[in-house]
Amino acid sequence: MQDEAYQTTDFIGGHWLEGDGEPREIIDPATGEAFVAVRDATIEQAHSAVVAAKRAGARWAGRTTVERAAVMRRVADLVRRDAETLASLVVREQGKPISEARGEVAGAAGFFDYFAEFARRIRGDILPSDVPGEQICIQRVPVGIVAGIIPWNYPAALVSRKVAPAMIAGDTIVIKPHEMTPLSALHMATLLEEAGVPSGVVNVVTGDGPSVGAALASCDDVALISMTGSVRAGKQIMRSAADNLTQPSLELGGKAPFIVLENADLEFAVRSAVTSRFMNCGQVCICNERTLVAQPIFDEFLERYVELTRTLRVGHPMQETTDIGPKVSLPELKKVEAPVDGAIERGARPALRGGRPDEPPTVGGYWMTPTVLVDVPQVDQIMQSEVFGPVVPVVPFADFDEAVTVANSSRYGLSAYDFTNDFTKEMDTVTDIDFGEVYVNRIGPESFQGFHTGYRQSGIGGDDGEFGLDAYLRNMSVYDNYARHPVGAQMPYGKAAAE
Fold first, then answer.
1. For a designed S-S bond to 177, which of 14, 63, 185, 289 qualifies (C-beta 3.0 to 4.6 A apart)?
2. How far apart are CA 22 and CA 38, in angstroms?
3. pLDDT grade for 424, boundaries at 50, 70 and 90
4. How far apart (Å, rounded) are the C-alpha atoms in residues 109 and 161?
5. Is the pLDDT of residue 428 over 90?
6. Catalytic one among 285, 287, 332, 437?
7. d(CA 326, CA 314)
8. Is 287 part of the annotated catalytic residue set?
């Protein structure tokens, strides 16, 4: 089963070390078969990675931003050099179609390019002082050690999303990939090493959240926990971080409404809605989770939506013609089946009934064809909870106010979509919708220079752009009394004052 072509050991302090925990089989979602094993790190090894990051901190922070950026650009070049290898690795352990995996790897390189541009753009401030011969400087300095905890749905790009801002800020970082998809992160570590990233600046430890992830989140030397994942995991991290008052930045679940108004370009909206729902087999936090369509165009929209969905090709993810690959694992597949079956039992009607195919592309894989539901009550679980799979309810609304009410009636507030040709309604959406990320007449992915943030239980903080970089920096106030005028506590007291 073991394949020497895969990097399977942890990267700690510039050394490749096998985990001391139990071996964990890595499963190919297209076949359901293990193809390699990776030993989990132990809690002690997680702590040793933090120690390595701490030792490297002062040296890395002492480099100029221009020097850090030069290393980061080498990383980007190496990611592009290994693009096809890395994309194939993403497919093998995560299951997304190769065309999407290539896009993910391009994003992984792009994060390093983008944040390297901040080499001369990290700004502080100089303020006037109340004292003559003095300046007050607000400097932007590294936070220190970052724990980056990432999920399984983008196992390469999300490494870069955490590592690149940390590196340009002068931080050091410990990355914990998801236990189901550690290989992409470990391959990224080989490229970081090859690019000349100093030992300890970036460390990768494998293992599950309750052990390795919790050890990182509760470590008092960690200054920032940047985590992408579920609401449940985010709440656990918040509890672990509380004792040390560690800063969290959490990008959690989503339940994106996809609003289609009566005057929208119908063909464009249909194609966008289908793409947004079914990319990566629906395993994207910003996916179209609830399609809300104006009543006058509902029937035509639904007909076109179902017709286009039927044409999507479910197939082996390494085939260039595949639109939808397998779910990442059997438990994740079952997790999607349950709310679909429940909704139908409670009266929802399938306009297109998918599920496990009778003739799957390969035997043993975690295949799931698309399901489109109508007549779904607003209170049903499938309208309220995140469904990480190729399933979507399509529901009508009477007017714009109803659409906004339905959209906002969610505990999530990550991404929302609005398709309309009415500029007034575009601006009304921006004003009335209560989500951290709003797309008007377009779908994701996000842009490097944007800010990926969620409201309510979709998280706190965020990633990307200048505002995402803020989490990796902190402010230091410097009072530079260059004229040495006595101030405050420097003023003489008592007998000295009398004299």
1. 185
2. 8
3. confident
4. 10
5. no
6. 285
7. 8
8. no
